[in-house]
Amino acid sequence: MREFWMRLMSVVVIVGLILGYNSVLEARAKDEEIAKLKAKIENTENLEGQDSKNGSYKDGTYTGEADGFGGTVKVEVIVKKQKIKEVNIVSADGEDGSYLTMAKDIIPKILDAQSAEVDTISGATFSSTGIKNATKQALEKAVK
């Protein structure tokens, strides 16, 4: 009977070690993905000085695309009387719904600043970065 309990304990320990090792591997994979996404953000933030700050955009409707957390985010920017009047998300098929909902809070910031040079939304950093960078790309087409 004692031998049975020893073997059972050995099996439990081995299973515990395997599960612990798998969780470490998953955490490393997530950390690597986050590092890649942060590198994308840093690369795009280097372009921040390119927006027009005085609101002198050409009237029209412009589109832009950029990578969000779950894929490509496409926006439509409407400029009237040389001001950004609307930023609409045309598609964001790969984005998680809850993150996208939080990330949409960046749109009023863009409208207030009349520029895509605004801070991202905490809790939805990568999704809001997608909206921000897509808007920036659209505004590059609208700069006088």
Automatic annotation (TrEMBL):
Task: Cite the InterPro entries for this sequence.
Answer: FMN-bd
User: Which segments constitute the FMN-binding domain?
Assistant: 68-142
- Molecular-function annotations in GO: FMN binding
Q: What GO terms fall under cellular component here?
A: membrane
What is this protein identified as? FMN-binding protein
Query: Which source organism?
Result: Dorea longicatena
Q: Give the lineage.
A: Bacteria, Bacillati, Bacillota, Clostridia, Lachnospirales
